[in-house]
Amino acid sequence: MFSKEGKVKDVKTPRICDVVWHDGEFINWSDARVHVMSHVLHYGSSIFEGIRCYSTKQGPAVFRLREHMQRFLNSAKIYRMDHPWKLDELCDAAVEIVRRSGMDQCYLRPILFRSLDEANTAFGVNPFPNPLACYIGAWDWGKYLGDEAIEQGVDVCVSTWNRLTPNSMPAMAKSGANYMNSQLIKMEALLNGFAEGIALDDRGYVSEGSGENIFLVTGDVVLTPPLSSSILPGITRDSVIQICQELGITIKERTIQRAALYVADELFFTGTAAEVTPIRSVDRITVGSGGRGPITEKVQKLFFEMTKGERPAPGEWLTYVNKEKQAPPPPDGFHGRGLETSTEDTAPILFTTAARD
Ligand SMILES: Cc1ncc(COP(=O)(O)O)c(C=O)c1O
Prior knowledge:
Blueprint: E1 15-16, E2 19-22, E3 25-28, H1 39-43, E4 46-48, E5 51-56, E6 59-63, H2 65-78, H3 87-101, E7 106-114, E8 132-140, H4 149-152, E9 154-162, H5 178-191, E10 196-200, E11 206-209, E12 213-218, E13 221-224, H6 235-247, E14 250-253, H7 258-263, E15 266-271, E16 275-282, E17 285-286, H8 294-307, E18 318-320
Parallel strand pairs: 9-10, 9-16, 13-14
Antiparallel strand pairs: 1-8, 2-3, 2-8, 4-7, 5-6, 5-7, 6-18, 7-8, 10-11, 12-13, 12-15, 15-16, 16-17
Helix pairs in contact: 2-3, 6-8
């Protein structure tokens, strides 16, 4: 658990890639700069992604690259960012930066933001006169919620801060500005001695962590809040839904009351950074037996096997950076997503607001 030293502690970053992709070209890390009067710094006008590239026996492989880049494009569309980038170009750029980095595993950070045209300045809130700039950086990133968290779980609190309302700041877009809300949640949690905070939505139902989606296990059923609870449509969340299907575990999107967190058998976070992290207490109330529960462990095991390419995934989840080595095809009889009937309540990734409960 983080203590007050959480104020200065951050996720380990053993290596940073010394080049950054910028609008179609690779530039040096030290040349990737913006003017302090850029629109984004004042008005939060950025959208971004977080993508993990895993070390596999077949070399580095980017996890669910197309889905992440599609969400990137969706976020840009929501914020009327009229840029020239196509899905394939962004995916190629991501693969190329991993290749150039020489890293076997890393975290990729695409970002698109409103910049400043110094020859034709515009300083108002209206974003349209400001040029857009697109970058992708890469670094090696450790375990987001601490090294022991994956096995032992984390202690979290319910935040006094609510998640964004859908008609104020769309949680569906991964915009930089949304993370001011996340920062309030995170700072409050850290200063109170917790690793993370869970935010409720504006109606008082469970939404998500400051940078993670949440899952609740009750008996042999797994529940997760729907997109209508102001959550980011997480790619890891979608992966876990499909993994539960693969395991034959009933998984449903349901609005979840705060009190249900306290009496759950198991809770866990999902996210690109946090991966699948068990939650062992909420507001100092022990969850289940106070450690990683059996369903969480099963889901985690499959997730890590799939990210490492040790087990076929329900779809083409891995983009191998050394292109000649492609993911093995799913074996016969592997149905993957869509054929498991227990998840009729779940929404397709990225798009729908599943107000079905
Ligand atoms: C607020 C928030 N919710 C959920 C997630 C999990 O999303 P994903 O699994 O796509 O990383 C993240 C991380 O990106 C996040 O920042």
